[in-house]
Amino acid sequence: MNWRSIEKSEHEVVNIPANWLCSHYYDALTVLFRVENALRLFVYVILKDRYGPKWKDLDIASDEDSKTTISALANRRIEQGKTFGYLSYPIQSPLMHLTSGE
After folding, report:
1. Backbone CA torsion sign across 50, 44, 63, 77
2. Is-contact 67 59, C-beta < 8 A?
3. 83 vs 52: CA distance, rounded Å
4. Are the C-beta atoms of residues 62 and 82 closer than 8 Å to each other?
5. pLDDT in tens, 27-47
Protein backbone atom coordinates (compact mmCIF):
# COMPACT_ATOMS: atom_id res chain seq x y z
CA MET A 1 0.00 0.00 0.00
CA ASN A 2 1.15 3.47 -0.77
CA TRP A 3 0.13 5.65 2.18
CA ARG A 4 1.34 8.94 0.76
CA SER A 5 -0.80 11.99 1.24
CA ILE A 6 -4.09 12.20 -0.56
CA GLU A 7 -4.16 15.19 -2.87
CA LYS A 8 -7.09 17.51 -3.44
CA SER A 9 -7.57 18.84 -6.92
CA GLU A 10 -9.70 21.62 -8.29
CA HIS A 11 -13.21 21.90 -6.75
CA GLU A 12 -12.11 19.92 -3.64
CA VAL A 13 -12.10 16.60 -5.52
CA VAL A 14 -9.92 14.03 -3.77
CA ASN A 15 -7.40 12.14 -5.89
CA ILE A 16 -6.51 8.79 -4.38
CA PRO A 17 -3.35 7.17 -5.76
CA ALA A 18 -4.06 4.15 -7.96
CA ASN A 19 -1.82 1.92 -5.86
CA TRP A 20 -3.13 3.16 -2.52
CA LEU A 21 -5.05 -0.07 -1.97
CA CYS A 22 -4.30 -2.75 -4.54
CA SER A 23 -7.23 -4.66 -6.00
CA HIS A 24 -6.14 -8.01 -4.52
CA TYR A 25 -6.69 -6.54 -1.03
CA TYR A 26 -10.36 -6.07 -1.86
CA ASP A 27 -10.73 -9.82 -2.37
CA ALA A 28 -9.32 -10.54 1.08
CA LEU A 29 -11.49 -7.85 2.67
CA THR A 30 -14.59 -9.25 0.95
CA VAL A 31 -13.84 -12.73 2.27
CA LEU A 32 -13.29 -11.39 5.80
CA PHE A 33 -16.53 -9.41 5.59
CA ARG A 34 -18.47 -12.52 4.54
CA VAL A 35 -16.91 -14.76 7.19
CA GLU A 36 -17.52 -12.18 9.91
CA ASN A 37 -21.17 -11.76 8.93
CA ALA A 38 -21.71 -15.51 8.65
CA LEU A 39 -20.33 -15.85 12.18
CA ARG A 40 -22.70 -13.11 13.38
CA LEU A 41 -25.64 -14.92 11.79
CA PHE A 42 -24.58 -18.19 13.44
CA VAL A 43 -24.27 -16.51 16.86
CA TYR A 44 -27.66 -14.82 16.39
CA VAL A 45 -29.38 -18.12 15.60
CA ILE A 46 -27.85 -19.83 18.64
CA LEU A 47 -28.64 -16.95 21.02
CA LYS A 48 -32.18 -16.51 19.72
CA ASP A 49 -32.87 -20.24 19.99
CA ARG A 50 -31.45 -20.55 23.48
CA TYR A 51 -32.58 -17.28 25.11
CA GLY A 52 -35.53 -16.16 22.98
CA PRO A 53 -36.31 -12.44 22.93
CA LYS A 54 -34.07 -11.80 25.95
CA TRP A 55 -30.86 -12.58 24.02
CA LYS A 56 -30.07 -8.86 23.74
CA ASP A 57 -30.04 -8.55 27.53
CA LEU A 58 -27.23 -11.05 28.01
CA ASP A 59 -24.08 -9.83 29.72
CA ILE A 60 -21.02 -9.35 27.55
CA ALA A 61 -17.46 -8.21 28.20
CA SER A 62 -15.91 -5.68 25.84
CA ASP A 63 -12.74 -3.65 25.62
CA GLU A 64 -14.76 -0.54 26.46
CA ASP A 65 -16.55 -1.91 29.53
CA SER A 66 -15.72 -4.75 31.83
CA LYS A 67 -19.37 -5.80 31.82
CA THR A 68 -22.40 -4.61 29.85
CA THR A 69 -25.24 -6.10 27.83
CA ILE A 70 -25.35 -6.78 24.11
CA SER A 71 -28.15 -4.25 23.72
CA ALA A 72 -26.43 -1.49 25.72
CA LEU A 73 -23.15 -1.89 23.86
CA ALA A 74 -24.88 -1.94 20.47
CA ASN A 75 -26.99 1.12 21.31
CA ARG A 76 -23.90 3.05 22.36
CA ARG A 77 -22.13 2.15 19.12
CA ILE A 78 -25.20 3.03 17.05
CA GLU A 79 -25.17 6.49 18.64
CA GLN A 80 -21.43 6.81 17.99
CA GLY A 81 -21.99 5.76 14.38
CA LYS A 82 -24.38 8.65 13.83
CA THR A 83 -21.44 11.04 14.11
CA PHE A 84 -19.76 9.56 11.02
CA GLY A 85 -20.85 11.03 7.73
CA TYR A 86 -19.84 8.01 5.66
CA LEU A 87 -22.46 5.71 7.18
CA SER A 88 -25.32 6.29 4.80
CA TYR A 89 -27.64 3.49 5.91
CA PRO A 90 -28.26 2.89 9.62
CA ILE A 91 -27.81 -0.70 10.74
CA GLN A 92 -29.96 -1.58 13.73
CA SER A 93 -28.99 -5.21 14.29
CA PRO A 94 -27.15 -5.34 17.65
CA LEU A 95 -24.76 -8.08 16.54
CA MET A 96 -23.55 -5.98 13.61
CA HIS A 97 -22.10 -3.54 16.16
CA LEU A 98 -20.06 -6.10 18.08
CA THR A 99 -16.51 -7.11 17.31
CA SER A 100 -15.43 -10.69 16.73
CA GLY A 101 -13.72 -10.68 20.14
CA GLU A 102 -16.93 -9.82 21.88
Report:
1. negative
2. yes
3. 32
4. no
5. 888 888 899 989 999 999 999
